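We close this part of the discussion by returning to an individual protein. In the encoding step, the backbone of a single protein was reduced to a row of integers, each denoting a local shape. The sequence in question and its structure tokens are set out directly beneath this paragraph.
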Amino acid sequence: MEIIQERLEREFGVELITTAPSVRYHITKTDGEKVEIENPSRWPDQSEIGKIEEPVIMATILTNEEYVGGILKLWKTKRGKQKAFEYVSSARVMLTYELPLNEIVLDFYDRLKTVSPDTLRWTIIWRATGSRPW
């Protein structure tokens, strides 16, 4: 990221501010007020929170059978919920999981590459599906 930032500053004179990606949590307070929080510093006191919902996505991945074990472990650590597991051929598997958006915005692809190092061996499709209780 620093290389991109330096290049933009040098070539285009753009001063770039980088931030960590974040997601919006939907909080219903005990008094019924609904708020969206995307900055942890604005998180209400625990005694004021009635319900928390987080955004989720549906992820479908098509991969070789040899990588399924590592991918399943990764999705489990990322709080994924399995929705489908299907053999589409003798060596290819299609997995569908519901995952919290927060679990994939930072390091998901890097971690996926460590459990299935050949990036040409998988295809992944994301679809936003709403939110679920946290």
About this structure: Residues 2-12 form the longest helix (11 residues).
